[in-house]
Amino acid sequence: MKNKTLHSRPASIPKKRWAAYAAAGVATALAGSNSLEAAIHYSGFLNVTFPPDRPRLKNFPLDQTGDYFVFARGKDLLSNTVPDLAAFSVFGIVSAAFRGSSPPSTYQYPVTKLPFGENISAGPFTKPRYRNFSGALASRYHSSTQWADRGIGFVGFRFNNGAGTQYGWVRVGGMKGVPENAFKVLDYAYADPGEPIRAGQTSSDEQSPAQGSLGWLALGAVGLLAWRKSRSRTAS
Length: 236
What we know:
This protein is of the alpha+beta class.
């Protein structure tokens, strides 16, 4: 007896069975897509400018009220004018910290410039010592900053709202260097509790289902549509 493959002729499956695949598969596909979307939350492209000619401070929201991060230029988080300061901090309902090493003095809390693909949870992290604590990307007290390079870099952070530790990143570019230390916040993302994330990652690393008909059928109606499209392309 000859072995038959799905490419030898169109598969013959009763309509009732197609309906069963569709009904059972839609819920599975939707549940899978929702969990995939929920794993990592991405801001989209923002391109928020912190210009060299005036002070600016802006909050960026995370998962809920009380969880957010802050960037400032030309001022600190106490609203004091500090002309050459480019600052960052993160706040969580329970706790928060950013990627950076312990400061060499009380005036320096350097924020580490991370490369693309860096594992955010790898550390080390610096924890805020008080509510208006900020870390410096660049300042008069941090002249040897990694952020002197005008290329793009990533700020890493973690926070906890009581449900567990969450990690995230912020992409920073447009650094103008001293003395103004102007910059842009391009975009950011954070993961759900227990979910890993790397700098620049905007979605989970879930694998696509198998491209064969059985893989598509496992996804019910969604898989059926894709399977039919793939067969029409093969036939043509």
